[in-house]
Structures are given as C-alpha cells and as structure tokens.
C-alpha cells in the first residue's frame, strides 16, 4: 500500500512539475515517514531531502501531537537552507486522522512564469473534476491533484465560447464567489456578478482576446451575495478546435488580499511621489550604460537620453560621476544647472547579475541655495560695512566664555581673540578703573533683564598699553540667553573733538558775554549823545532855514536817526541770539493796535502820495492774549519797508482771526501787501538773513541796515509763528504772518470799524510873545516846570517826533497833567485839552502838528529858565 501510494503521488508530482515548469513540489507525509519530491532530476535532491527530513522528522515530529503547523519561522528556516525565495505550503488530512503537507517552492526569476503555467494546470484540474462529476472511478494515485485543488483558493471552469454556456465550474465557486456552480450557467450570469464598473471592460476584453486566440489574464471585481466586493484574477486558456468552435479553460483566483496590498503599495507609492514632487525631489536609477531605468516622475522607457544629457545637459559623462570611481560608495555632491541647484545623494545598487547601478536622490535646492547666497552676500556686505565704518563686532558666551570678534576689533586693540576661550576677568581688567563700575552695572542690567539694550562708553587698554575710547552697543542674544553680542565704536577721536568743542564753546560763551556787555554799554553810551544830537538838530531846523545850512541839518538828523535805528536793531538781534528776548503776553485789543498803526503811518503815506488801507477779514475778538509790543515791532518793520519801497499805488494791511475747535484759541493772520518794486526770486532766498538788502534796483538805492526782516522773522519764531513772502519784481510784495494758538476773550467783535477822522483845526494857542506865558507863573512854578521839562517831557517829546505812539502820547499827556497839578499854567492847560481831544479821536493827521507846537513851550523854557 505504501509503495503504491508513493508511486501515485510521485506521478502526480511529476505531472504538476511538468505543468508548472518553474516550481519544485514536495509531498511530506510525516506519519508514514515519507518525503516525495520532484527534485529527483536535480543534483541537490539528496541534500534537500536530507534537510527536510532532518527538519521535519527530527524536529517537528518530536512534538507529541500529530497535527503539525508550519509557521513563519519554519518557512524562513527552510528558505535559508534551500536557498529559495518563495514557498507555498498546503496542509491536508489523509484518512481523516493523518496530516500531510504539499509544498510548492520557486525562486524570484521563476515567479513571473507561474501565471502562464496555471492556465495549463487549470485545464488539467477542470478535466479531472469533469471526470469526477461523471462518477468515473478515480484512482488513489490522483490524491495529490485532488488535495492541491482543495487547497488552492481558485475556481476552475470551462466555457463553450460559441454557445456562451459553461461546461464546468468548480465547487470552489460557492466558497469564493458565494454563488453555486449551477447559478452561473452562462456568460451573462458571469457578467451579472461582476462589479458594474468592470462589466463592459471585462466582457469586451475577454471576447476580443478569445476570438484572436490569445491566452489572457485580467482582473475584475465581483460582488458577492452579501454585498462584499472581492478581486478576481481570471487566467484563461483559449483553444480553437477544428470545427471552428472555441473552448475556454480558466481559473478564477481570489486576489483580494494581494490587490489590497497592491492598492496600499500604490497609495504609498503615490504618496511618496507626491511628497517627492512637492519637496522638489527625484528618485532615479541609472544602469552601467548611463541609461535612466527608473524615474519617479517620468516613464523611464520614454527617456532616450543618457543621464548626463538628461540631467546635466552635457554631451559627455560627468567628470565626478560616481560610476567612474574604482570603488563606488555613497556620495553627496552638488549640481548647478542653469539657474537651478541640485543636491544629489548617489549610492550603488548591485543586481543579481553582479552589475552596478547607481541610485540617486536628486533634490532641487535652488530656493535654499539662493537664500544661502543672499545670506552669504548679506554677511559679506555687513562685514564690508563694519570694516569700512571701522566698527568692531564681538560675541561672548558668558557660560562657556568663548569669545568671537571680527578683524576690525583685532586691528584696533591688537588682540587676536577670535574663537577662543577668554576669561571674563581678563576682559574686565582691560577696562579703565574709572569706567569699570559703570560698565559692570550696565552689563548686569542687561543680564538680569532689567534693561534690554546695553549702551555704555568706556576706555579699553590695547596691546600697545594705550587707552582708547569705545562706545559699546549690545544685547543678550535672543536665541542664546548666555551670549552677549554687540558692536564697538572707536570714539577716541570723537572724544578728543568733543573736548575741543567744549573748550571752544566755553570760550565762545565767554566771548558772547563780553560782546553782550560791550554792546549794552556802548549802545547806552552811544544812544544818549545820539538822542541829544537828534533833539538839538530838531531845534536848529526851526531856526536855520536858509540853504545850504538847512540841508546840512537835515543830513545830520537823517544820519543820526539811521545810526540810532541801527543801534536799537543790533541790540534786539543780540537779545534774540543770546536767548534773552522774552515774550510778554497781555490782553490787548487788536483793533486798537491796528488803529494805532494806521494813525502812526498815515502822515508818511500821504507825504509819498500813496494810500494806506487796513482791511479786517471776518470777525475779530475783543481781546487777545499776545505780546503787543512784539506785534507792533513786527508790523512797524514790515510797513516801514513797504513805505520805503513803494513809490506809487497802495499799501494794504489785512488781518483775520481763525478760531480753533476748542473755542478758546485761534490763529492770527496778518498780511502786509504793497505795490512797490518787488523782490527778485534769487534775493527772496536770503531776504531774512541779517544785513541783506535787495540792491538790484540801482536806480533807486534804498536806505536801511538790513536787519529789520531778520529781526521780524526771529521775533515771529519766538511767538511760534511763521512768515511767508510772495513777491515779483515790478509788481510788489506780500508778507503773510501766521501766529497760532492765540488765546482770545469775550465775544468776537464786528462793530469796531477803522474810520478816518475829520481834521480838527488847531489855532495857535501860544502867543508869539513869550512874556504872555509867564503872566500867571511864579518863580517857584517856573523852577518846577524847568525840572519836569528837562527830566521827562522833553525826552518823551523827542521820541514822539521820531514815531507817534498812542502809548507814548498818553504818557506824555500824563506828564503834562502832572505838571499842571503843581503849576497854574493856563496856556499849557489849553494845550493839554486839545492834545487829549486829538488822542481820543485817533486823529493822527492833527497829532503830528500839535506835537510840533509843543516845541514852542520847550524854546520858552530854554530861553527863560
């Protein structure tokens, strides 16, 4: 019995071996101590048999049970000994109580042939089962085939292609497809169990290949009765008979697990390709002929160029190609191709034939390379700037005490301390003793985070034993809190220059003080005799009227006034420059000030034959808080200039007040507009500089010091205001003043208007005979009058003859009334009444005449007292 069984099994093994043509088959029956193999034709049969016998009989059969499981460790052991890559094992039972094993062994190279061989196996198995269905007595020698069919996860079948009817479907259909063989009688039934998305494609492909007589293999999905979907691989053998009939033999294999693994692998592959694509990475393999046989993003079969042609755009192999080396090892190198830069990691791959292929991981690092280049360029620029600016850069790790510095630090100090461990105490010992306390204090503030930036100056002892001044600006590194970084500026020359400047400033301040004292003293000394000269010149003018002496007197008077004006302006300029001029604000009536200005200049305007007009624009507050004396000084200078440079036409003074939103303050705007000779564009650039005058009009030379506009601008600046000039030669000039944030009081006044007063005829009130003045005066009263005249009234009168001012007029009138309280002087009392009337009516046409009449009182006092 044993010999017959072995012979039958061996025959079946030989049949299977002949059909597969690629695998070795082994039958193991442990209980019978039987191992049958198709290796008998091979030289290593005895070796393999001994291996298997030793493994199964001596190791596995020591187990007390007769049911033996071959686990993964068993497979690995067999593969390692037998040198096969793949083993398929099929366990089965004999006589219901004995276990046997059928092994199918094949190597990697043979694996690709299995699909073709299975078609033939399927045909044989189908024939076997057809005979079985017809109840043909099966010999026990068919045991191995029967067992093989029962263990293979597949469905054998045969089909008459002409009729479309299945002649046979194996019983495995129910287990694998969930459909009984009788439920799949025709090709239409077969199509109906296929997934709708695969039906048309599968049917058309099968028909096309069958008609062409081509054996074929294809995959499709089947929907089982419970709705689950499995993958089927159909392996079909096509036979064209002599009677023109077509017979198909096939084998349906459940490849769901394999397909799922393939899909997982495909997903992983797609994910890998996606990652590689968006990380600018390419995997490729180059064979020993420099042909690209694999490329992650391209179909390698379509790449006809050599690797150096495709990747590097070269005609010949790269000089640093790893394949040129005697020993190929993993290599890293860079490739710059056009504007792109690639990092290539190359590694050798040895094939089964012993050939060396090169695998490459090619990463496009163009962006990184550009950024690295930008960083490198920036570092070079920074180093250049530091070197050009003679700026030292240092880093000191307070924990490791590693010190780094640039070349400038070495050149300045003479110490080459870059990238060395440097004791902190040594550094501190180089700092001047007078600066060490401040330096430590500032450093500790930064270390303790009470201060973010370090900014300190100190003296540092160089290698030449000389102290130099450093300005250190640094901070704690944000990425490394133990590292102090910063720059050092060599300020030795700056310190020397600063000391020189301080000395020069002290000398300048002292010189300015001396100059101010000198000007103050000299101005006082000069102003006193100048007032006397002008006063006596006025007296002489009334007595000397004959030419050419009267012209001499006029020249003396004009020169004296010019010199006095120059002295006053020099003093004002000196006060401004030295910061001694103060702004003293008070409540004043703008309309009153403008009326006073109008009355001051109307007589001079009339004498030149031009007109003066003051125009109020909008509502003006009753009172404003401003320095009235400075405002008058500004307007007098501007109007004086306008009169001086205007020979025909008019002068207009426009003023307005623009309220702020707080309803407490506003901006005062005043414009002085004339139709004079104008100012050239070139001269306008410097018109506000001291001692600058427009002398472009040589036909009409103008007198003046050239200080007026400079003083005006400086005074306006002191009042936080501004002045703007608009002018054109031959057309005229416009000076616009703007003083902001001027407080105002009471409501805006719209009722006050500037009106021209009617002239008042003033008859001579003083008799030509001076004796009449003394009719009612005693000697004591005459003495009192003489003292008051000399000390108060005559000096005030002299100022009024130069410029009529309402303030001075009121002071002058008060002085007369004070004198009248002590003396009973009838003529002077009547004069006082008329003067008061003219002041009250703002009649600035009559006031100059009346001031002139006061000269008769002066002459009387000088002659009689």
UniProtKB/TrEMBL annotation:
Residue ranges of every copy of the Histidine kinase domain listed in the record: 521-743
EC number annotated for this UniProt entry: 2.7.13.3
Pfam families recorded: HATPase_c, HisKA, PAS_3
GO molecular function terms noted in the UniProt entry: phosphorelay sensor kinase activity
Domain PAC: 216-267
InterPro entries named among the record's database cross-references: HATPase_C_sf, HATPase_dom, His_kinase_dom, HisK_dim/P_dom, HisK_dim/P_sf, PAC, PAS, PAS-assoc_C
Alphabetical list of CDD domains matching this protein: HATPase_EvgS-ArcB-TorS-like (cd16922), HisKA (cd00082), PAS (cd00130)
Source species of the chain: Plebeiibacterium sediminum
Reactions catalysed according to its record: ATP + protein L-histidine = ADP + protein N-phospho-L-histidine
Keywords per UniProt: Kinase, Phosphoprotein, Transferase, Two-component regulatory system
Keyword presence, Heme: no
Domain PAS: 164-214, 397-450
Keyword Phosphoprotein in record: yes
Name of the protein this chain belongs to: histidine kinase
């Amino acid at each position: 019995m044993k010999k017959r069984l072995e012979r039958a099994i061996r025959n079946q093994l030989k049949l299977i071996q002949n059909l597969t043509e690629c695998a070795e088959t082994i039958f193991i029956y442990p209980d019978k101590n039987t191992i049958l193999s198709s290796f008998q034709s091979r030289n290593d049969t005895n070796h393999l048999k001994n291996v298997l016998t030793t493994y199964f009989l001596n190791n596995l059969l020591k187990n007390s049970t007769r049911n033996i499981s071959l686990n993964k460790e068993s497979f690995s052991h067999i593969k390692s000994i037998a040198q096969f890559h793949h083993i398929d094992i099929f366990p089965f039972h004999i006589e219901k109580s004995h276990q046997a094993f059928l092994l199918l062994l094949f190597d990697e190279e043979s694996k690709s042939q299995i699909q073709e061989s299975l078609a033939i196996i399927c045909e044989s198995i189908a024939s076997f089962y057809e005979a079985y269905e017809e109840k043909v007595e099966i010999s026990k020698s068919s045991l191995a085939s029967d067992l093989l069919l029962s263990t293979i996860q597949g469905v054998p079948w045969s089909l008459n292609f002409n009729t479309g009817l299945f002649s046979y479907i194996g019983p495995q259909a129910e287990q694998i497809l969930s459909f009984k063989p009788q439920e799949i009688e025709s090709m239409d039934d077969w199509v109906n169990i296929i997934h709708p998305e695969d039906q048309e494609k599968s049917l058309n492909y099968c028909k096309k290949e069958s008609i062409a007589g081509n054996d074929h293999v294809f995959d499709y999905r089947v929907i089982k009765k419970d709705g689950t979907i499995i993958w089927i691989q159909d392996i079909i053998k096509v036979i064209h008979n002599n009677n023109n009939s077509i017979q198909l033999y096939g084998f349906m294999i459940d490849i769901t697990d394999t397909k799922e693994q393939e899909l997982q692998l495909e997903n992983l592959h797609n994910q890998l390709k996606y990652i590689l694509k968006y990380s600018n990475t390419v995997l490729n393999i180059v064979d020993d002929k420099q042909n690209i046989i694999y490329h992650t993003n391209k179909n390698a079969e379509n790449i006809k160029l050599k690797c150096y042609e495709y990747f590097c755009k070269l005609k010949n192999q790269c000089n640093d190609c790893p394949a040129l080396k005697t020993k190929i090892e993993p290599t890293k190198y860079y490739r710059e191709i056009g504007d792109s830069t690639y990092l290539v990691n190359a590694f050798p791959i040895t094939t089964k034939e012993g050939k060396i292929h090169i695998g490459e991981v090619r990463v496009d690092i163009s962006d990184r390379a550009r950024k690295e280049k930008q960083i490198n360029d920036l570092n070079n620029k920074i180093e250049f700037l530091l070197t050009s600016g003679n700026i030292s850069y240092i880093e000191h790790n307070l924990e490791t005490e590693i010190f780094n510095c640039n070349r400038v630090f070495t050149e300045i100090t003479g110490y080459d301390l870059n990238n060395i461990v440097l004791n902190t105490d040594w550094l501190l010992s180089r700092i001047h003793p007078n600066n060490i306390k401040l330096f430590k204090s500032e450093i500790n503030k930064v270390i303790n985070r009470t201060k973010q930036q370090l900014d300190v100056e100190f003296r540092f002892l160089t290698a030449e034993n000389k102290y130099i001044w450093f300005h250190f600006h640094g901070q704690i590194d944000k990425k490394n809190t133990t590292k102090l970084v910063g720059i050092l500026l060599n300020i030795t020359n700056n310190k020397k220059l600063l000391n020189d400047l301080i000395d020069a400033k002290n000398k300048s301040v002292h010189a300015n003080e001396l100059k101010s004292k000198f000007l103050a003293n000299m101005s006082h000394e000069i102003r006193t005799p100048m007032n006397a000269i002008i006063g006596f010149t006025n007296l002489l003018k009334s007595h000397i009227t004959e030419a050419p002496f009267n012209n001499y007197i006029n020249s003396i008077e004009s020169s004296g006034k010019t010199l006095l004006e120059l002295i006053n302006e020099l003093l004002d300029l000196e006060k401004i420059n030295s910061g001694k001029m103060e702004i003293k604000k008070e409540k004043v009536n703008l309309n009153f000030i403008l009326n006073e200005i109008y009355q001051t200049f109307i007589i001079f305007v009339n004498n030149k034959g031009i007109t003066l007009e003051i125009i109020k624009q909008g509502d003006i507050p009753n009172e404003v808080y401003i320095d009235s004396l400075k405002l008058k000084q500004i307007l007098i200078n501007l109007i004086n200039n306008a009169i001086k440079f205007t020979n025909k036409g008019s002068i207009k003074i426009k003023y307005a007040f623009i309220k702020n939103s707080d309803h407490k303050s506003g901006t005062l705007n005043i414009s002085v507009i004339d139709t004079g000779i104008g100012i050239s564009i070139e001269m306008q650039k410097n018109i506000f500089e001291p001692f600058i005058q427009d002398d472009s009009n040589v036909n009409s030379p103008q007198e003046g010091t050239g200080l007026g506009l400079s003083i005006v601008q400086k005074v306006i600046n002191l009042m936080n205001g501004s002045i703007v000039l608009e002018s054109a030669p031959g057309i005229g000039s416009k000076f616009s003043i703007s003083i902001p944030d001027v407080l105002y009081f009471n409501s805006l006044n719209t009722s006050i208007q500037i009106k021209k007063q009617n002239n008042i005829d003033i008859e001579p009130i003083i008799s030509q005979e001076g004796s009449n003045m003394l009719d009612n005066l005693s000697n004591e009263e005459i003495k009192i009058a003489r003292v008051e005249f000399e000390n108060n009234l005559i000096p005030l009168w002299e100022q009024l003859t130069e410029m009529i001012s309402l303030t001075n007029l009121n002071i002058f009138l008060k002085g007369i009334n004070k004198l009248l309280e002590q003396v009973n002087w009838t003529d002077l009392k009547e004069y006082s009444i008329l003067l008061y009337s003219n002041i009250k009516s703002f009649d600035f046409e009559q006031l100059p005449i009346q001031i002139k009449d006061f000269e008769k009182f002066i002459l009387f006092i000088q002659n009689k007292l």
